[in-house]
Amino acid sequence: MKLLNPFRLLAALSLAGSALLAQAADFTVAYQTTVDPAKVAQADGAYEKATNSKISWRKFDNGADVISAIASGDVQIGYLGSSPLTAAATRKVPIEIFLIATQIGAAEALVARNGSGINGPQDLTGKKVAVPFVSTGHYSLLAALKYWKIDPAKVTILNLAPPAIAAAWKRGDIDATYVWDPALGVAKETGKVLITSGELAKLGAPTFDAWIVRKDFADKHPEVVSAFAKTTLDAYAAYRRDPAAWLADASNVDKLVKLSGAKPGDIPGLLQGNVYPLAADQVTELGAPTTDAITKTAAFLKEQGKVDAVLADYAPYVTTKFVAQ
């Protein structure tokens, strides 16, 4: 029997491994217009290079649509807020949260139109407030009304996507909105902020954005998901090392403007309004803090009639395996 040369065997195995990585599955990613440092990596093609894949980037206006696309199999990886992902997990959509994208602060807010007669929270009664339903903004709006002891039934809450909110605001069709950029920037030009998601977090109603992946895709291509997570975290680390220097690079700001629709002057405030967890933080956050937040969000959504039940355990929908590496 002829024995294989061990060096040739190792070389063959190495080539086979390289071929497998080179053949990583092409996939579709759902992104939204939020402002975050990783959009620079998206604009630069860093995700394609890291995963050795062809990526189709599809822009979505809200998390509910992201979930529909992922549930149908049209999208493999998606960016969305804690409220829609909680609703998806509660309905047992086969997803895993593999990265906390941002802990939302001032990047989402409730804004009242100047001249609408809304001078404080209690003036919201009888007014038209627009928000994308089953979004983090929707969750935050309802949480704010609950905190202020305002009956949501006494507020006309309209379900509008962010582009429609911006258009309705310009026409004067709505009195207030709870939304994110670029629609938030439009509203703030002629309105005043009543409360931000960062302030609500301190009152016990935190929200966050996350990256999720279909479980079947993650099981088949774990190296791709890990590379995607690392690319995101590298972008966060580059920003957090020196935010001032990062913002001083005009190309970084230009790329964020292009992919978010936000105004250049608003970029610094929007970035500083959120927290972008680094790798070490992710391992901690993707544990009890996230499962507890999802459980509380699910209970709130059930109370509001947005989901039928609360699962006993949300841990199967959260994983650290792609960031722990």
Automatic annotation (TrEMBL):
This protein's GO CC annotations: periplasmic space
Segment forming the signal sequence: 1-24
Domain Solute-binding protein family 3/N-terminal: 26-243
Intracellular or extracellular location(s): Periplasm
Any one of the GO BP annotations: alkanesulfonate transmembrane transport
Protein name (database record): Taurine ABC transporter substrate-binding protein
Gene (name only): tauA
Assigned protein family: Belongs to the bacterial solute-binding protein SsuA/TauA family.
Protein origin, superkingdom: Bacteria
Organism: Pseudomonas lutea
Keywords: Signal
InterPro entries the record matches: Peri-bd_TauA, Solute-binding_3/MltF_N, SsuA/THI5
